[in-house]
Amino acid sequence: MPSNKKASVFTHGKKLSDGDMYIITIIDLEPAGLLVKAYNQSSNAEYTLSPTEGQIKDAGLSRSENDLTKLADSIDIVTKDSRTFISSTLPSIKDLKVIPSGPAVSTFISSTVVGSETLPSLLTTALSELCKVKPAGLDAVKWLGEWLLANNPNQPHVEESEA
After folding, report:
1. What would be one Pfam family of this protein (predicted)?
2. pLDDT of the residue at 7
3. Less CB within 10 Å around the terminal CB: N or C of the chain?
């Protein structure tokens, strides 16, 4: 088998908190980390979790069978805000980030606070400033990016002293 192909390094059957049996499969994606899959045959549902190398190290895990068993045993099914996913009870293993879709995108954007204002307010100011300058073509994208970097209230400005 070519070295760039990855195979399951661990498979484990487990009943999760929803009462269903799942096949927990762990795939080695070194150097990126591990891929944990939980497959429920009765519902044909599959959930994934991708702990990074840093998270694996912080959890004190290696790729030994005992540590992979510990990781598999820490997996459970969670439902939060009508979204079902798998999570690890190991504190260093972080849940997948939620990527909003549909109406949740509008809610996310309008509720995102940037400094003392909302993201739409900051973007309105940025686009107004862009209209005043009127750069052409891709220069407009570059100018907008630089303006957002220079005027990001969440990014502290560091004054460097001249030595």
Report:
1. Dpy-30
2. 59
3. C
Alpha carbons 161 and 61: distance in angstroms, whole number: 43
Question: Could you tell me which residues are beta bridge partners of residue 108?
Answer: none
Q: How many of the other CB atoms lie within 10 Å of CB of 120?
A: 14
Tokens describing residue 24 = 């927990």
Q: 89-98 as b/e, with b when 16 or more CB fall inside 10 Å?
A: ebeebbeeee
Cα–Cα distance, 63 to 151 (Å, whole number): 45
Q: What is this structure's pTM? A: 0.61
The conformation of residue 33, written as its DSSP 8-state character, comes to: B
Interhelix angle 119-133/138-150, nearest 10 degrees: 130
The rounded distance, in Å, linking the Cα atoms of 30 and 27 is 9
